[in-house]
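Q: Sequence in, structure out?
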Amino acid sequence: MVLPQRLARINKRLTNRVLRHLVGIGPLAELEHVGRRSGRTHRTTLLAFRDGDVVTLALTYGSDVDWLKNLRAAGRGRLRVGRTLLDLSAPSDLPTAVGMARMPGLARMILPRVGVEEFVELPVIGTHRRR
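A: Exactly. Output:
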């Protein structure tokens, strides 16, 4: 069982706005993606784990989330980590064992307990420093 969609809606409307100010602390990052229907730019705060030229994300609400659908439709997005902006290409699904192995120790302990089994990786295709 992944986290409930009701919690996702609360995070989308309230928590993301608060956490946006903490982006860059630890794995907290802000994903910028374009709405597949609206064409509007959206920002979602999430935990991202970068290793070289890929970023790995645990799908704590499952794969039926708007930000992932938008990334798949657009084939790209951007991720802000502190003052660094990463250009990302389309997400690829990862086997559970591979995704879990890319998580830090604490996440490897917590994610299975809440039923998270889905992970995606996003290749980094460019890096920019923000001022």
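The chain has a mean pLDDT of 88.
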